[in-house]
Specification:
single chain; 344 residues; alpha/beta; ten-stranded mixed β-sheet; 10 helices; 15% strand; globular
Length: 344
C-alpha cells in the first residue's frame, strides 16, 4: 500500500454554481444543502487520523464541497490541520480568492488549490457560470503569487473533447503548475460519456504530442496523466513497460479506490469513490473508518472480479476507470467504456 492515504472531504454542499455535471445535484436539483457542524468536523478529522494510525499511513486531505471556503468554520478547520501538521489541497471555486485569502491559505499549510476548466469560454461558462472561465484563468496567478501550486482539472465528455488541446494552451499561457483531465462519469438518466473508444485514444495521442512539445520548450506546467487509460496508451507506444520482476497479486498502480483513497460527504457518509454513485460503505458519525476499511471496502479490492481487466496483462497497473463503467450500468467491475484494447 502507498505511504499516503487521501481523504476527499466534502465539508459543505454550499456553492456559487450549479454545474451541469455536478454529482451533488445530479439526482435532485432542489436537494437540501448539507453541511457539517464544527463538532462533526472535529469528530471526522480524528476518525481519519485514527485510521491512519491503525494502518500506518500518512494522512492527506483534499478539502472540498460545494465550495469549502463558504463553510462558516472553514478557517477553523484549516487551523486544526495546521496544529496537527497535516498537509492539504483545496478543491474549490475561484470567486472568493484574492491575494490576501491565498496568502492566508498558504500560512495554514495549503499546498495546492485546484480549479476547473471544462472548455473554452463559451463551453465552460455554459457548464458552470457566466464569467467563470475568465476569473478562473485570472486566479491562477493569484494562487501562484501566494506560493501555492495552481492545479487545473478538466472533466472530459463528448461535449468538450474537441476543446481539450485549446484548454491546454490556455493553461500553459497562464503558467498553471499542474494540468490534468479525467472523464465525466454518467449520473442520473445519462448512461454514456459520449466518447467512442477510438476517439478517446486519439485525444490521448493528440495531448501526448502537445505535452511533449511543451516539455521540450521548457514549459513549467506539469502534465499529470491522471486517467488510467494513459497506461494502456503508453504501453502501446512503448513509454510504459511491464517490469521483468513482478510480485504475483500485487497492485502497482491504476484506480486508487480500495487502496489509498476514500470520500467523506457533508452528511458523514463514506464513499469508496465520490464518482461511483452506489459506493456508500459507512458513515463517519457512526462507524470507525478503520473497521469500514477491512469490511465494507474489501470488495473494491477484489481485482479478480473485473470482467475485462482481470484478463489483461495490465491489470496491476491500469483497470481503466471503474467509476465511468459503473455510471453506465451500476457495475463497478464492468469494462471501461472508453477502453479500446481487445482482450480475449
Amino acid at each position: 500500500m502507498k505511504q499516503y492515504f487521501s481523504f476527499q472531504w466534502h465539508i459543505t454542499d454550499e456553492c456559487d454554481q450549479r454545474c451541469k455535471h455536478c454529482y451533488i445535484f445530479s439526482e435532485d436539483n432542489c436537494k437540501k444543502l448539507d453541511s457539517m457542524s464544527w463538532e462533526q468536523m472535529q469528530e471526522t478529522f480524528h476518525n481519519c487520523l485514527d485510521f491512519c494510525k491503525v494502518y500506518d499511513r500518512l494522512p492527506y486531505f483534499y478539502i472540498t464541497g460545494g465550495d469549502p471556503i463558504l463553510h462558516p468554520d472553514f478557517w477553523k478547520l484549516l487551523e486544526l490541520m495546521k496544529e496537527n501538521g497535516i498537509p492539504f489541497t483545496i478543491l474549490g471555486n475561484p470567486f472568493h480568492l484574492d491575494d490576501a485569502v491565498c496568502q492566508r491559505l498558504k500560512e495554514y499549510g495549503c499546498e495546492k488549490y485546484q480549479l476547473s476548466l471544462d472548455g473554452m469560454r463559451e463551453t465552460h461558462d455554459w457548464f458552470r457560470k457566466p464569467g467563470s472561465f475568465d476569473i478562473s484563468l485570472e486566479k491562477i496567478g493569484c494562487i501562484k503569487r501566494a506560493g501555492i501550486r495552481a492545479v487545473v482539472m478538466t472533466t472530459v465528455s463528448g461535449t468538450n473533447i474537441d476543446e481539450i488541446p485549446d484548454i491546454i494552451d490556455a493553461v500553459v499561457e497562464q503558467k498553471a503548475d499542474v494540468f490534468a483531465f479525467a472523464r465525466y462519469c454518467p449520473t442520473s438518466g445519462e448512461k454514456e460519456v459520449g466518447i467512442e473508444p477510438v476517439r478517446y485514444r486519439k485525444l490521448l495521442e493528440d495531448c501526448d504530442r502537445k505535452f511533449r512539445k511543451y516539455e521540450a520548450e521548457g514549459c513549467e506546467t506539469y502534465f499529470n496523466k491522471k486517467d488510467h487509460l494513459w497506461t494502456l496508451y503508453e504501453y502501446e507506444t512503448g513509454a510504459f513497460r511491464i517490469p521483468e520482476t513482478v510480485e504475483e497479486g500485487m497492485i502497482y498502480g491504476g484506480c486508487n479506490c480500495g487502496n489509498c483513497h476514500l470520500t467523506i460527504l457533508p452528511t458523514g457518509d463514506i464513499f469508496a469513490c465520490r464518482r461511483v454513485q452506489n459506493s456508500k460503505v459507512g458513515n463517519v458519525f457512526t462507524d470507525r473508518i478503520a473497521d469500514v476499511w477491512i469490511c465494507q471496502m474489501e470488495k473494491y479490492r477484489d481485482y479478480a472480479r473485473f470482467e475485462k481487466c482481470s484478463k489483461c496483462e495490465l491489470l496491476a497497473w491500469c483497470r481503466g476507470c471503474p467509476a465511468v463503467a459503473s455510471g453506465r450500468d451500476g457495475n463497478f467491475y464492468a469494462a471501461d467504456p472508453q477502453c479500446w484494447k481487445e482482450v480475449v
